[in-house]
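Reading a protein record of the kind used here takes only a little practice. Think of the row as the fold of the chain written in a discrete alphabet. A record is reproduced here so that you can trace the correspondence yourselves:
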Amino acid sequence: MIARRYQLRKEAVGVVRGGAPWIFRDHLSSAANVFADGQWLRLVGGDNKVEGYGFYEATGAIAIRILRKGAEPPDVAWIKARVAAAVKKRAILATTTTGLRLVHGESDGLPAVVIERLGDTLVAQSYAHGADALARYVTRLVGGAPNVLLQPAHRQRRSTGDEVARVLRGSPPDVATFVEEGLTFSADLAGGQKTGTYLDLRGLRRAVRALPLGGARVLNLFSYTGMLGRAAETAGAAHITQVDSSERALAFAAAHHVDDRGKHELVTADVFAWLPAQTGSFDLVIVDPPSMTSDKRQVPAVLAGYRKLYRAAAPLVAPGGLLVAACCTSRVERAQFKATVAESLPGFTRERELPPEPDHPVGFREADYLKIELWRRGS
């Protein structure tokens, strides 16, 4: 694609030189208004020096996603090198699971492009019009899968209702199956959100499987398709209550992630409304809500939502039991989340924090979106 010239304001030059992956809209001049959504740009400083290349987004806070710094354009050789480096980082992980994220957007130097391998299927997403062609090309470079599905995920397609996935190769199944450290999971490609599963929660599934849950009662809130419930059942849990607002997700859980139906109670409900009315005692309570905002102005309200959740969940944890507190809202910083959970759980001790999975590298501050902590209630 031909990159059109765009003269950066002084503060935007500093953004590019500082290594940030994005230029926000308030750093642009009015001259940017002429560009079409998805237009590739050659970013020029005040001295007419080429500072880098990126592509334009017509709506939203992010106005330009930076592809490459410096005067050299992001050519085919450069793209191949970025993809090869990303895949190499996952080489060890690929020996233990057939479900992994091969390309993680900006953190792998390929903005707005996500590629996941789920068994024999690649699922690609682009989060901006300018990355559509790049996403398609990257699927050819990672190779190794007979089926390739492109799922639209950026704002323009969501707002127009054009959310039909496109088959790029083979015959992708409606349900993809993959094996994660010996345990089989399924992903809903026909109607699932994102790529049909949450590979970034692999570390939490591993941690749950390692817990001594023989005969335990487990409460899994915002359970989606029940992958954490499956991990708990594998660890020996006797009863698992899974709550989610999506009837479809729970039906998928029952069909694919439940071995002993008698051990599972599947509840379709709004967790915020359902939780305060509950009584009982659970040895493990998992609270993993979806992202609550992408707007930093809404962070105080989001933190209030987390406090409400943990205060309602705390009395349900048995003495000596565990509560998993998870946050995938990128605008909530790690220290903010930690302080909010601590405030909400008097009588609990923070036992440990789970690090990001290796296929979800944190390449810049905003990429540190997923926080997972385990808190133990006093005996």
